Fold this protein.
Amino acid sequence: MEADDVLLDVTQVTVKPDFILVLKFANGEQRRFDMAAYIEQKPWVRLKSGNTFFGAFVENGTVVWPGNIDIDPETLYEYSVAI
């Protein structure tokens, strides 16, 4: 298995305004993921109401919200930028 094939678990999430997630991955990297492009799509559109987006937490190596809403760690890593 090559290094690029290793699945990277999210170990920490910090929620910022404007649908930004600051993520820490198992390899120690910190990355910034912009959810704005996803927030109008199902199931994430439900995160727009109230403070639902700010309820994010890490479970099983990815970011999860109440109501069984999640996003896979591969997407989080691939479409985030290092900070």
Q: What stands out?
A: The radius of gyration is 12 Å. The beta strands are 10-16, 20-25, 30-34, 57-59, 62-65, 69-71, 81-82.
